Amino acid sequence: MELRHLRYFVTVAEELHFTRAAERLHIGQPPLSMQIRDLEAELGVALFERSKRRVTLTEAGERFLVRARAILDDAAAATEEARRAARGELGRLRIGFTSSLPYSTTLPDLLYAYRQRYPDVELQLTEMFTDAQLAALARGRLDVGLVRYVGGAVAEGVKVREIGRDPLRLVINAAHRLAGRSSIRFAELADEAFIAFPPGAGTGLPALLAQLGRRAGFEPRIVQTAREATTQIGLVAAGLGLALLPAPLECVHIPRVRYLPIDDEGAHFALSVAVRETDTRPLLAGFLEVLEQLRPQAG
């Protein structure tokens, strides 16, 4: 039994006339009658009662019609679902992002635009440090990562591409002697105490802090570590030191805290997209296409 047999049967059952059913199906009436007889023979029951004046469904035919319609509807739904999946319109996409991105327009704009275009794709979002995202991608636990990559080794099979840059800001207590400046050069901070992410946190900011300090001729002095950027801002408000964070976090308004632009070359934090090299699924391709269209507004 094939789906075409069910379509032939349902059409005849709806028309209760073999000639009209054949016209709807764009086949000849004799071949249609033969197909219905073959179906009845396979089932071992009569589906129609035929006379010279009319065609009616038997009790078996009535019951078979309900199931046949359901099977055809399911087959049509399965076909459409498979085609939509092949177009990247269905499925689940696992996305990693760093903690600073929700404070920028990049992540909200990207997710909004993607959901407008692909409303039936399930998004599984996970906030993770960059190193954790890269490891999860390599293990197949993420599909795409929005990372703050500053260089270094990447697991085999994972590729990283820069898509934007955010300027860095010096987070400073409003009572600090330099807080009134419109901008700052790193060489002016040689004697200052810094609050930073702990070693091994998986973010590139400690490396950038060290790099900017060394270019300015000193090694930054870390007096306190904190894993959350907002915690660092709070510690700056408490007067424990200065912090180096990406500009999108300027929207975090805490009393006694200011954010100063940094004039030094290289005082920016790159935003990159990371994926597995072998992942060519339309689901991911659709996400990357939306991201590419938003790039002029990104970072």
TrEMBL record:
The keyword Transmembrane does not apply. GO terms for cellular component: protein-DNA complex. Keywords: DNA-binding, Transcription, Transcription regulation. It comes from the Bacteria. It holds the Pfam family LysR_substrate. Belongs to the LysR transcriptional regulatory family. This is LysR family transcriptional regulator YnfL.
